[in-house]
Amino acid sequence: MKNIKYIILIAIGFSAVSCDDFLNPTPDTVIVSETYFKSDADLQTGIIGIYDAIQGVNENTVTNDARVNRGVILEYLLTEHRSDNTRSQTVEGSRADFHRYLVDANNIQSEDYYASMYQVIFRANNIMTFMDVANPENVAKYTGEAKFLRAYAYFNLVRLFGDVPLVTEVVLGSDKEALFTRIYKEIIYAQIVQDLQEAVNTLDNRYKGRASKAAAQALLAKVYMTKQDKDYAAAKLLCEDLIATNEFQLQTNFYDVFYTELNSEIIFAIQYAFGVETESQSFSAEFTSTLRQGRQDGLNMVNQNLIDDFASSGGTRTAVSFVTIASSGRSEVAKFLPQGSNVTTVPPTYGSNPQNAGNDWIVLRYADVLLMHVEATIAGGTATSDAAALASFNKVKDRAFPTTAPNNITNVTKNQLLLERRVELAFENHRFFDLVRFGVADNVLSAHAATMNYPDYSGRALLLPIPAREINLSGGLLSQNPGY
Fold first, then answer.
1. Residue 476 buriedness (CB in 10 A; 0-12 / 13-18 / 19+)
2. Does residue 105 fall inside a structural domain?
3. Is the separation of the CB atoms in 70 and 278 below 8 Å?
4. Which contacts (CB < 8 Å, 24+ apart) does range 471-476 have?
5. Which residues, 6+ apart, have CB-to-CB distance to 43 below 8 Å?
6. For a 10 Å CB count at each end of the chain, is N or C smaller?
7. In this predicted model, what pLDDT tens digit does every residue of 376-390 receive, in sequence order?
8. pLDDT tens digits, residue range 419-464?
9. Same domain for 293 and 222?
10. What is the pLDDT of residues 203-216, one digit of tens each?
C-alpha cells in the first residue's frame, strides 16, 4: 500500500519538547550525526527521517500528551477547530479549548505542534550539513527535498504563530539568540520562497508521498497568495504550469480521492500504514463520537453551518465528506473513516483496528490547485469571468454535480470561491487558512462565535500563543503574541 515507509532514523525517542531540543537534540537523545551520515545511502535514509517527523507518533502507542512529537496528527485542532467547520464533542480538556477560542500559552497540543515543526526543521538543516557525503549528482536533489520540507514546516508555523525563530542551519544549543529570537514573518516568507524556488528547480515528479516539483509549485503558489506582499501573477503562472503538465487529474469519483491512496489527484500526502503501530495514525479514530473509537469523546464534529453549505453546494461530495449517524444525530467526518468502517449499519462499525488507521494525510491535491488558479486570477478582486479560471472552477463543480455537467458557470465571485473551497476541502485543514488569506477571518469567526455562544473569541485568536515553555527556556528572548 505504501511506496515508501517513514522510519525513525534519528532516534530522538520523541522526548524533547523545547525549541532548543527540537532544533538541536542533545547527544543522549540522538544517534550522533557525525558518525552516522557516511554515505549517499545514509543521507537518503536521513531524508526519509524528516518525513517521519511530519508523520508523528500515534497517540495509541504513546498516550502521554507531554514530551511527544505528534507531527500533523493533531493539526486539525489548530486549524479546523479554530474555523467555523468543526468542534469537539465535549467542552472538557485542552483540546476543547481550540473550538471555543480558549487556547492559552500552556496548551499542550499547540506546544506539541510548534515543537514538531521545529523537529522537521532540525532534521532538514541537519541533512544539509552533510551533503559532502552525497553522490555529486544527488546533491541538488537532496538539498531541494530538504528545503521543501523546511519550507513546509515554516509555512505552517508562520501562519499559525506569526513571527517565529528562523534557523537555517544547525547551531550550538548554547546560542539562545539564534534559537529564540523571533523574526519578522515577511523575512521568514522570503526564506520559504527561496527554499521552494530551489525545490521547483531541482525536483521531479517521481513521488507523491515525498517532495516533488509539483508539490513545491503548489505550495509556492499558496505562499505567494498568503504573504503580506501578495504576488498573484506568480501564483497564477505556477498553477497554470501545473495544469499544463497533465500529470494530475481529478478522480471521477470523489470517494476515490480519499480511499485510493496516491491516486491521480494527489500531489503530496503524508503516508501511514494500517495496523502498524509505529507507522499508523489515530486521528481517524478520534473523528468518531457515536461509538467512540479513539481516546477522546469525539473530535472534528461537524458544525451545522457547514452542513447547511453542503446541502446547498456539496453535491456528490456531501455523502463522502461527513455522515450523520441516525441513532445519535451526530455528524462525523467520513473522509478518513478507519479501514473496515461501515457507518450504514445500526450501530455503525469502524473496523478491526481503528486506532491504528492507515489513511494518508493529504497535504496538496489537484482540486486545490484548480481553485487556487481561480483565486490567483481574481487577484484580490471580487470576481472573475476569465475563461481559463472558469474552466478550472467548472472542473471541480462538474465532478460535484455530474447530472448537470457541464455546468458552464460564467462568473465566479470571491464569496463563491470561498464556499467552493469550503465544501471541496472540508476537514483537510484548509478552511482557517482560507479565511485568513481571503481577508475575512475576523468577520466570519466573530459571527460564528456569536452564533455558537463562544464569548471568548477576539481577534487575537487569529494567531496562537507562543508556547510558555519556549518563552521560559529562552530566558526572556521570546516575546508573546498580543492578547495572551
1. exposed
2. yes
3. no
4. 471/105, 473/18, 473/19, 473/20, 473/180, 474/19, 474/176, 474/179, 474/180, 475/176, 475/180
5. 37, 127, 130, 131, 133, 134, 138, 142
6. N
7. 999 999 999 999 999
8. 999 999 999 999 999 999 999 999 999 999 999 999 999 999 999 9
9. no
10. 999 999 999 999 99
Has residue 9 been placed in a domain?
no
Domain shared by 251 and 389, yes or no? yes
Contacts 24+ apart (CB under 8 A), 469-472: 469/17, 469/18, 469/106, 469/111, 470/18, 470/19, 470/111, 470/114, 470/180, 471/105
Separation of alpha carbons 139 and 33, rounded Å: 18
End residue of a domain, out of 308, 338, 360: 360
Range of the domain at 356: 277-360
Which helix (H) or strand (E) is 165 found in, with range? strand 164-165
Kindly indicate the confidence band of residue 292, based on its pLDDT and cuts at 50, 70 and 90: very high
DSSP letter assigned to residue 291: T
CA distances from 300 to 80, 113, 190, 270 (A): 7, 17, 33, 19
| Contact by Cβ (8 Å): 179, 20 | yes
pLDDT at res. 13? 33
C-alpha cell at 170: 544547525
CATH of residue 76 = 1.25.40.390
pLDDT recorded at residue 239: 98
Q: What whole-number distance in Å separates Cα of residue 113 and Cα of residue 101?
A: 17
Per residue in 311-341, pLDDT (tens digit) is 999 999 999 999 999 889 999 999 999 999 9
Q: Provide the pLDDT confidence category of residue 5 given band limits of 50, 70 and 90.
A: very low
Q: In the predicted model, is pLDDT for residue 6 greater than 60? A: no
Query: Does a structural domain hold residue 171?
Result: yes
**Which residues touch 138 (CB under 8 Å, ≥6 apart)?**
40, 43
With a CB cutoff of 8 Å and minimum separation 6, the contacts of 439 are none
∠ CA 448-454-455 to the nearest 5 degrees?
115
Roughly what angle, to the nearest 10 degrees, separates helices 185-202 and 139-161?
A: 150
Of 4-8, 45-49, 187-191, 288-292, the one with minimum mean pLDDT is: 4-8
